[in-house]
């Protein structure tokens, strides 16, 4: 059964990503049992698979999404597209809209919204987030905008415009800056940019 093999591989990959990104994680078993962010992404993957089966299965996908929100505090629309090794630390209050696209190795903290700014139907209304992006607690990334690879978005920032690859975006509205050193690792930039944690 290729689907089950693929699902098991994804679960292992998600557990590895959680172990790498969460310093409080003691074991894979602990994370698998107690991480609402992982529970939400696993449920989303099933709901997304149902969603992709077409209109007949989409109500079931939405019900699963709603039950997951009630259990985890994380709301991911089954129509969103999310890459591999996605991790939500703490979980509570995360909202990911229907037309959001999220790349690989992305990390969100609690309270993040990938939301829309339009009420139009049938158009892309939510952000596209590149690979290896970290979005801090309470950040709002709104509209059909592009967040480039390796971007760091600070806690409580409000992002309504494109952010180029490798940049740091902080504040309300977010100001975009680049790491001070040309070869500075984006993860290291987190510690050199205090507003990331505010």
Describe the structure.
It is a single chain. A 6-stranded mixed β-sheet has the order 3-6-9-12-14-15. The protein has a 5-stranded parallel β-sheet with strand order 1-4-7-10-13. A 4-stranded parallel β-sheet has the order 2-5-8-11, with no helix packed on it. It has a single domain (2-197), classed as 3 Solenoid (UDP N-Acetylglucosamine Acyltransferase, domain 1). By secondary structure, the chain is α/β, with parallel strands linked by helices. The termini are far apart. It has helices spanning 2-21, 28-34, 36-51, 58-72, 186-192, and strands at residues 75-76, 81-82, 87-88, 95-96, 101-102, 107-108, 113-115, 128-129, 134-135, 140-142, 146-147, 152-153, 158-159, 168-170, 175-177. The chain is built from 5 helices and 15 strands. The model has no long low-confidence stretch (mean pLDDT 90). Helix 3 packs antiparallel against helix 4 (58-72).
Distance between the termini: 47 Å
Q: Shape, please?
A: globular
Structural class: alpha/beta
Poorly predicted sequence stretches spanning 5 or more consecutive residues: none
Pathway: Amino-acid biosynthesis; L-cysteine biosynthesis; L-cysteine from L-serine: step 1/2
Protein name: Serine acetyltransferase
Keywords: Acyltransferase, Amino-acid biosynthesis, Cysteine biosynthesis, Repeat, Transferase
GO molecular function: serine O-acetyltransferase activity
Q: Keyphrases for this structure?
A:
five-stranded parallel β-sheet, 198 residues, UDP N-Acetylglucosamine Acyltransferase, domain 1, alpha/beta
């Amino acid at each position: 059964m290729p689907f089950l093999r693929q699902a098991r591989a994804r679960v292992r990959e998600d557990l590895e990503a959680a172990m790498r990104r969460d310093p409080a994680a003691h074991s894979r078993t602990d994370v698998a049992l107690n991480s609402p962010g992982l529970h939400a992404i696993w449920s989303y993957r099933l709901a997304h698979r149902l969603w992709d089966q077409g209109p007949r299965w989409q109500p079931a996908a939405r019900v699963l999404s709603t039950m997951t929100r009630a259990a985890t505090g994380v709301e991911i629309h089954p129509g969103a597209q999310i890459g591999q090794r996605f991790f939500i630390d703490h979980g509570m209050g995360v909202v990911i809209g229907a037309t959001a696209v999220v790349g690989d190795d992305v990390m969100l903290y609690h309270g993040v919204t990938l939301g829309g700014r339009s009420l139009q139907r049938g158009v892309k209304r939510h952000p596209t987030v590149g690979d290896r992006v970290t979005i801090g607690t309470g950040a709002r990334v709104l509209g059909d905008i592009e967040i480039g690879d390796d971007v760091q978005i600070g806690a409580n920032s409000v992002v309504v415009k494109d952010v180029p690859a490798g940049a740091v975006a902080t504040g309300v509205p977010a100001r975009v800056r680049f790491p001070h050193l040309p070869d500075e690792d984006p993860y290291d930039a987190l510690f050199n940019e205090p507003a990331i944690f505010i």
